[in-house]
Amino acid sequence: MGSVTPPDATHAAPSRGATLELQGVAYHYEGRNQNESAGLGPLSLMVQAGEFLTVVGPSGSGKSTLLSVLAGFLRPQAGQVRLAGQVISGPAAALTLVQQEHALFPWLTVAGNVAFGLKSQRVPGQEQQRRITDALTQVGLAGYEKRRIHELSGGQRQRVSLARALAIRPGLLLLDEPFSALDARTRTEISEQLLGIWQGQQVTVVFVTHNLEEALDLGERVVALRGGAVVLDSPTEGLDAHRLRAVLDGE
Ligand code: ADP
């Protein structure tokens, strides 16, 4: 933990984002016939520092497996993942994962949740307070420090999850269908907020979604997976959902 992002990173230091490099990465689940492609790869991919990449694919295409490998929860059976040049060999503090829901600690306050990663990184108390305030301000929840999670709406909870991730000042932000349980209006609001944060910090983002419009609206570049393989890797500009759907359907 903490080997890539120094825990004493100064208050003012903006995150520049980290380069993410996958070289021949493969993960196949035990007991499955590898010819069925139950898993991922081998897959090679380069995500530039500060890039916003979206990943799409039908159910079972390997999106979750990819994120678990990137987060260091699954160790690839072949190949390597490098973040800022260093091989990811376990859960790393330099990146952080925001999921759909249920990822917060309901018995802690908002501030307690945002502080969680900071404590494990041993960020000093005063710096913790600053980062909590900054992160909550970034997601539009300034003043919510003492609120309990059960008092918050679904959208506010996802903002807290995002704030918790941002407080760590990660080089890479992993997002796993983070907004799919939200209503359309809230999703639009929080998506715009995420884009603003990304533009301000230039953190590298890998955002997984099954929503093709969302993938095209948010990302600079989209990777489409099918059967654990990349079937499209393209800038989002000039690409429409219809074409993306056709690629995913194998047309
Ligand atoms: P997605 O997130 O795109 O739905 P997954 O990464 O969950 O895809 O799954 C990719 C493939 O791996 C699928 O064929 C799925 O059935 C298989 N798979 C996922 N998790 C497991 C598991 N724990 N055990 C066995 N096979 C799995």
Give an overview in words:
With 251 residues, the chain is α/β, with parallel strands linked by helices. The chain has helices at 63-70, 110-120, 125-138, 154-167, 184-201, 212-218, 241-248, and strands at residues 20-28, 39-47, 52-56, 78-83, 86-87, 95-98, 172-176, 204-208, 221-226, 229-235. Helix 2 (110-120) packs parallel to helix 4, helix 3 (125-138) packs across helix 4 (154-167) and helix 4 (154-167) runs parallel beside helix 5 (184-201). It folds into two domains: 1-6 and 15-94 and 170-251, P-loop containing nucleotide triphosphate hydrolases (Rossmann fold), CATH 3.40.50.300; 105-169, no CATH class. It is 32% helix and 23% strand. Strand 9 and strand 10 form a beta hairpin. Bound molecules: adenosine-5'-diphosphate (ADP). Adenosine-5'-diphosphate is lined by residues 29, 32, 38-39, 57, 59-65. Adenosine-5'-diphosphate (ADP) is lined by residues 29, 32, 38-39, 57, 59-65.
Relevant terms:
alpha/beta; 6-stranded mixed β-sheet; 251 residues; 23% strand; 2 domains; binds adenosine-5'-diphosphate; Rossmann fold; 32% helix; 4-stranded antiparallel β-sheet
